[in-house]
Amino acid sequence: MKKSLDTLNFMASYSIKELENLSGIKAHTIRIWEKRYGIIKPARTDTNIRCYCDNDLKSLLNIAILNRYGMRISDISKLSDSEITEKVINASSDSSNAENNIENLVVAMVEMDEYKFDRILSRYIMHEGFENSVIRVIFPFFEKIGLLWQTGSINPAHEHFVSNLFRQKLMVAIDNIVVTESQTAKKLLLFLPEAEYHELALLFYNYLIKKSGRLVYYLGSSVPFEDVVETSKMVNPDFLFTSLTSSLNKNEVIEYLNNLSQTFPFQKIFVTGLQIKENFTELPSNVLKVSSPLDFVETLKNL
């Protein structure tokens, strides 16, 4: 029986395209599985557009894990929910499988299950190390669901829930790094523009920079431009680093980067974030795009 949209009012709501982005299963395949095997039963809008809830997402992610491990969809469709859960637990026992861990983190987020989220992440960190875990699991996880947060498809509570859990681990890791005493260490000033609060990526770059033996001046989120200027006068950084995710539109981003470039003509300015990755191929000459943490680790070797 089709679900009424009334039953979705307290849940997040996803389009079939968003389900495709989160699960990695093509929308065409999802439609076939619905029709042929009835694995999920979406609600419909007044204009007959499919609308999926949290439970649909969880079911599809579990099916994706089992399908990746070689189970045919026809066999999976015959299993009860409890049988699927048991088989997913067994299939997920390989804690080094990054894609499985990403999908399980999405489920833990949707369920608001702190114990499950922490157990998945801690187990992966134990096997792969903190830095590799962030690069292989956490960054792809946040990128996978980041667009949905911006479009409002996911409840903001989900964002706050997982962000705070990961932030706690990041702060502990940063706290454990001994600050360099070198008088010749390169200095980097890290900050987010005013009204920009997506801080997790910047915190991880802070971790990478401090671990490399450079000196970091970390100003945090929503920093007025004049404060960046004043701080720079005091500490005279060799490089600046910022991230642009959602606070500015494209024209405002261009204006902001040009302003940075002209105000700090003798420093290199590293910039990352969703806005930069999606919208820009040409930047001012002293502004350098950071595409990924792995790329930046290589860049750090030459600073």
What is the CATH class designation of the largest domain? Answer: Alpha Beta
Kindly provide the radius of gyration, computed on alpha-carbon positions and rounded to a whole number of angstroms.
22 Å
Note the main sheet.
Answer: 5 strands, parallel
Q: Percent range for helical residues?
A: 55-70%
Subunit arrangement of the protein: single chain
Terminal Cα span:
61 Å
**Number of helix segments?**
14
SS elements, strand count: 7
Briefly note the structural class of the backbone. alpha/beta
Percentage of β-strand residues: 5-15%
How many domains would you count in the coordinates? Answer: 3
Across the major sheet, the strand order is 4-3-5-6-7
Overall spatial form: elongated
Fourth-level CATH superfamily of the largest domain:
Cobalamin-binding domain
Overall mean pLDDT stands at 84
Task: Write up this protein.
The termini are far apart. 56% of the residues lie in helices and 9% in strands. The chain is α/β, with parallel strands linked by helices. The N terminus is likely disordered. α3 runs antiparallel to α6. The protein has 14 helices and seven strands. The longest helix is centred in the middle third of the chain and has 22 residues.
